[in-house]
């Protein structure tokens, strides 16, 4: 999971004694792969980054990027200081699309990247829900909701995911997600075209986003509506469906312009995400709920309405996820020794810079 917060930069380069025990955390996202190595006090001593590491979409290149980021992290913060891979004693890797690692041929490629970097401990691969929860709170129990391109919620007990809701993918679910917003914006436009009604500000913006080379201006003739409808349907169906999520930004921009349709879509998205959470939580639950992803972010209108809706329906703190790789590294400390999973270490590894 990738959430837009950077790890706090260390004040000084940490100089390690030869016998120092280290842990490794990883975040394999669709657009980036990030690795952090830390000592038992939660000090970052190495970090690496590479291109996307989602094992579902392109496993071979994802595994290669995984290995590249590991090797970079092992050079340490000081390029002259190479970390001994055998001193890494515990590792937790968060992976978007992590279920692909259950396939032997995919797992073999990631195992080769791991051992090729000289690492000998056995990494624990977990999903982005667990990573997001750990990045938002050091509590052992609670719930988490990710709403970005897709959407999913999870119930966490003793730092482990025990139940999920939604996360069914764009074809079957992901209600209230960026994909949902984009699809519903386009559907509302097509309904208006079918009825020969004005398409409004959001509709005009969707036309511009999907058909950027089309001449600007309203559509007045019924024949014109039919031609526009056909152009939209043909263009959208020629692209990967997930690209509809790009229209979420168009909805938000129209929302900021007080477009009526955009307001209705944003409100409905927040309601659907609240319903997803309600599949896992009851009104008596008082553990924290961690929100992650761009749609659920504090700067998003969906995120703002969602936070209010959650507070109206549930008890417990509503928190925002920080850097996923920091959460994974903190979980690795706990895997090494539960006594190391302290709040202080969590703050050092996860909290955004002031």
From TrEMBL:
Keywords on record: Kinase, Transferase
Domain ATPase BadF/BadG/BcrA/BcrD type residue range list: 24-331
GO molecular function: kinase activity
Domain of life: Bacteria
Family matches, as Pfam families: BcrAD_BadFG
Keyword Zinc: no
Descriptive protein name: N-acetylglucosamine kinase-like BadF-type ATPase
């Amino acid at each position: 999971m990738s959430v837009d917060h950077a790890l706090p930069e260390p004040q000084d380069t940490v100089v390690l004694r030869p016998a120092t025990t280290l842990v490794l955390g990883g975040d394999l996202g669709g657009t980036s792969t990030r690795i952090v190595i830390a000592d038992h006090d939660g000090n970052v001593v190495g970090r690496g980054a590479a291109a996307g590491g989602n094992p579902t979409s392109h496993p071979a290149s994802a595994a290669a990027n995984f290995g590249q980021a590991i090797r970079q992290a092992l050079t340490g913060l000081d390029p002259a200081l190479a970390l001994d891979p055998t001193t890494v004693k515990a590792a937790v890797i968060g992976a978007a699309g992590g279920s692909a690692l259950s396939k032997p041929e995919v797992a073999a490629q990631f195992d080769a990247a791991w051992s090729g970097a000289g690492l000998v401990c056995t990494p624990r691969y977990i999903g982005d829900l667990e990573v997001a929860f750990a990045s938002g709170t050091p509590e052992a129990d609670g719930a988490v909701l990710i709403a970005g391109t897709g959407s999913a919620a999870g119930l966490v007990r003793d730092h482990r995911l025990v139940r999920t809701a939604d996360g069914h993918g764009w074809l079957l679910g992901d209600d209230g997600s960026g994909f949902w917003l984009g699809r519903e914006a386009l559907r509302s436009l097509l309904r208006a075209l079918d009825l020969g009604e004005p398409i409004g500000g959001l509709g005009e913006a969707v036309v511009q986003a999907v058909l950027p080379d089309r001449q600007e201006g309203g559509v007045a003739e019924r024949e014109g509506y039919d031609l526009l409808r056909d152009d939209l349907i043909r263009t959208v169906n020629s692209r990967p469906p997930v690209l509809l999520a790009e229209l979420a930004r168009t909805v938000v921009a129209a929302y900021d312009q007080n477009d009526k349709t955009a307001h209705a879509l944003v409100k409905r998205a927040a309601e659907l995400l609240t319903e997803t959470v309600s599949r896992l939580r009851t009104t008596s639950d008082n553990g924290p709920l961690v929100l992650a992803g761009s749609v659920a972010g504090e700067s998003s209108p969906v995120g703002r309405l969602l936070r209010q809706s959650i507070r109206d329906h549930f008890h417990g703190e509503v928190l925002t996820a920080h850097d996923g790789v920091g959460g994974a590294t903190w979980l690795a400390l706990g895997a090494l020794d539960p006594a190391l999973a302290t709040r202080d270490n969590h703050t050092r590894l996860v909290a955004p810079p002031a």
